[in-house]
Amino acid sequence: MAMQVQSNRHFDDELAVLRQLLSDMSELVEEQVADAINAMSSNDLKLAEQVRVRDDDVDRLELEVDYQCERILALFTPVAVDLRLIISAVKINTDLERVGDHAKNLAKHVCVNGLSAELVAETNIREMADEVRWMLRNVHEAFFRRDQFLARQIIAYDQRVDRLYEEMITTTGQLIRTYPDQADEIIHLVHIGKSVERMADHAKNIGKVVVFLVEGVDIRHQSVDRNPDRSVPQAT
């Protein structure tokens, strides 16, 4: 019995390390996104370069999370709810790393030649970015609180970002016709808009992982799946 208690305590300690690593990863990625957007808005090339350099820290944390998941699987062979947590951590880790990549790409487009604050102000890119930052912040809370209802709100919220992105594409087309001499700069804005839209997609993906973690239901392809109610067996 004493050995079992010690093993359970060891398992809980390893899970605590995993949760902390994921929290660190999420907070760093949110900071990267905020700094990339601020660099774009203020044409701060130094801040944009810092975002690009700090992507190495995101990659390092991704490897640490993966290693910790592998370590737990090797040491404890978890099942049921605990196994779902490890699977979820691996998926969330991948999506967070990709959000970090998009923040780096956004910063790269700022670094090329800088961006005109006037052009940025004529698009809805700041509004898009604010929506995405809300999604990332709340999907973090949804995961750590295991709040599937908040996660589902975030999944639905992605449609709003998609609509804003469509509006931005229309606006940038008009801007190119109005300011043809700034076409290259406007194209960089289009790439930035796409990066922000993809960040929202990854936040949505994390929301779906939270639903899987809490409910044991994989809803990734629910809209096209003829039999979407495929639940993972619960612990008995």
Give an overview of the whole structure.
It is elongated and about 70 Å long. It has 236 residues and is mostly helical. The protein has 7 helices and no strands. Helix 1 runs antiparallel to helix 2 and helix 1 packs antiparallel against helix 5. The longest helix is centred in the first third of the chain and has 41 residues. The relative contact order is 0.13. It is 83% helix and 0% strand.
N-end to C-end Cα span: 20 Å
Give me the strand/helix succession: HHHHHHH
> What do we call the CATH homologous superfamily?
Phosphate transport system protein phou homolog 2, domain 2
CATH topology grouping = Methane Monooxygenase Hydroxylase, Chain G, domain 1
What fraction of the residues are assigned to beta strands by DSSP?
under 5%
CATH structural architecture? Up-down Bundle
Alpha-beta content class: mainly alpha
Using the CA coordinates, give the radius of gyration: 20 Å
Index terms:
single chain; 236 residues; mainly alpha; 7 helices; elongated; disordered C terminus
Give a quick rundown of the structure:
The protein has 236 residues and is mainly alpha-helical. The protein has helices spanning 2-42, 45-76, 80-113, 117-121, 125-145, 148-178, 183-215.
Give the topology, please:
Blueprint: H1 2-42, H2 45-76, H3 80-113, H4 117-121, H5 125-145, H6 148-178, H7 183-215
Helix pairs in contact: 1-2, 1-3, 1-5, 2-3, 3-7, 5-6, 5-7, 6-7
